[in-house]
Amino acid sequence: RARVAVLLSGTGSLCAALLAATERPGYPAEVVVVGSDRVADGLEHARRRGIPTFTCALADHADRSAWDRALADALARYEPDLVVSAGFMKLVGPAVLAAFGGRLVNTHPALLPAFPGAHAVRDALAAGVTVTGATVHLIDAGLDTGPVIAQREVPVRPGDDEATLHERIKDVERELLVETVAQLVTPDSTRKTSR
Ligand code: GAR
C-alpha cells in the first residue's frame, strides 16, 4: 500500500475520513504519519489508531526557511509516497516542495481558481455565487495555484452561513479526497475526474 503523510492544523475531519478509508479492505493507501503546525485536535485521530504524529511549529524555528526545512525533514523520516495537506493552514516552502513536489496535494473548500486562500467559504458567500465546491490540487509555490486534480460542486442554499456551507462542502470534500488519493496512488488506474 502507498504511504501517505497528512498535514493538518485543526479538527482534522478530512484526515479522519482518510484514516477510516484506509481501514477498508482494498484501499490502496495507508497513513504513515500525521503532522501539524500547531497544537491541533486533529492529531488525535491518528494517535487513537497508533499512527505517529508530529508538530512542527513556525514559532519554534528561527525563521520560515528553518521551519520549512524542519517540516521537510519530519515528513521525509516517514518516506511518504504522497503528502496530503488537509486543512493545513500554512504555505509550505521550497524545502518541502523540493522534497515532495509532484506528490504533494492540497484539498480546498472552493472551486479553484475561484476563492483561493484561508477564507474560501466566506469569500464565496460574499461574492453571491450559487455554486461552490471542493478542489484537490497539486501544491506549487503559490497560494492554491497548483494544477487541479479533481473538483466537485456544492450548491449554495438560501440562508447558508459560513458554517453551514462549509459543513456541506466538507461532506463532499471528504469523499473527493478519499477517492482522489486512491486514484493518485494507483498507477494503472484510469485517471477520472470524479464528480
Ligand atoms: C477543509 O475544508 C479544508 O479544505 C480547509 O480547511 C478545512 C479543514 O477541515 N482548508 C483550507 O481552507 C486551506 N486553505 P477539517 O479540519 O475538518 O479537516
From TrEMBL:
Protein EC: 2.1.2.2
Residues the entry annotates as binding (6R)-10-formyltetrahydrofolate: R64, M89, K90, L91, V92, N106
Gene3D superfamilies in the cross-refs: Formyl transferase, N-terminal domain (3.40.50.170)
One Pfam assignment: Formyl_trans_N
Pathway membership, UniProt: Purine metabolism; IMP biosynthesis via de novo pathway; N(2)-formyl-N(1)-(5-phospho-D-ribosyl)glycinamide from N(1)-(5-phospho-D-ribosyl)glycinamide (10-formyl THF route): step 1/1
InterPro entries, alphabetized: Formyl_transf_N, Formyl_transf_N_sf, GART
Annotated catalytic residues: H108 (proton donor)
EC class: transferase
Formyl transferase N-terminal domain location: 3-181
GO-annotated molecular function: phosphoribosylglycinamide formyltransferase activity
CDD domains attached to this UniProt entry: FMT_core_GART
Site (Raises pKa of active site His): D144
Keywords noted in UniProt: Purine biosynthesis, Transferase
Reaction catalysis annotation: N(1)-(5-phospho-beta-D-ribosyl)glycinamide + (6R)-10-formyltetrahydrofolate = N(2)-formyl-N(1)-(5-phospho-beta-D-ribosyl)glycinamide + (6S)-5,6,7,8-tetrahydrofolate + H(+)
Function comment: Catalyzes the transfer of a formyl group from 10-formyltetrahydrofolate to 5-phospho-ribosyl-glycinamide (GAR), producing 5-phospho-ribosyl-N-formylglycinamide (FGAR) and tetrahydrofolate.
UniProt xrefs under HAMAP family: PurN
Homology family: Belongs to the GART family.
Name by which UniProt lists this protein: Phosphoribosylglycinamide formyltransferase
